[in-house]
Amino acid sequence: MDSNVKCPKCSSAYAYQDGALWICPECGHEWSQQDQAADADGADGVAEIRDANGNVLADGDTVTVIKDLKVKGSSLVVKGGTKVKGIRLTDGGDGHDIACKIPGIGAMNLKSEFVKKS
């Protein structure tokens, strides 16, 4: 067993091999050696941000909110189906990786898992 294999998601040193897959007992992430090799070849320091359907997002894209989202600290709600134009991708440490302006609400950050590319 390769003792220097770490989980690519949480960097845990306790990953173990089960058949063709590697499994992390701490976060539950599973990956294969081919996936890890492909990630190492394609890693240029910029992470791909994907929408709820798995499409890669880019700056300036138009997205649609897929479910009603409550705005924290306010009584406002971003309704599902709201189109958001001209998004900016950010590296939010709290999971909010899209900065945008929502019509009728203003500037806010969204998680990519709650939008789909239009």
UniProtKB/TrEMBL annotation:
Domain Protein YjdM C-terminal: 49-117
Recorded family membership: Belongs to the YjdM family.
PANTHER family from the UniProt entry: PROTEIN YJDM, PROTEIN YJDM-RELATED
Name of this protein: PhnA protein
Domain Protein YjdM N-terminal: start-end pairs: 6-32
Source organism of the structure: Acetobacter persici
SUPFAM superfamilies documented for this protein: Prokaryotic SH3-related domain, Zinc beta-ribbon
NCBIfam families reported in the protein's UniProt record: phnA
